[in-house]
Specification:
about 70 residues; 2 helices
Length: about 70
């Protein structure tokens, strides 16, 4: 998960750098939209990882409870 998260954040940073470097408004807007999309993907993968960990913890706790 963290590899994808880091990748998405790196792409977002790259898109923001590209936006800062251009003089064309339409290119700047496109880069900023791309950065936003990359950041949303990073947030989604982070949230998914947290939810997966919570689900696995609940399943493990249920197995322990059943064993006793």
């Amino acid at each position: 998960m963290s590899t994808h998260h880091e990748f998405y954040l790196e792409r977002a940073a790259e898109a923001r750098r590209d936006a800062d470097a251009t003089q064309l408004q339409n290119v700047r807007d496109r880069c900023l939209r791309a950065a936003e999309a990359w950041e949303q993907m990073a947030a989604r993968v982070e949230r998914t990882g947290r939810m997966r960990a919570e689900t696995e913890a609940k399943k493990a706790a249920a197995l322990v409870a059943e064993a006793h």
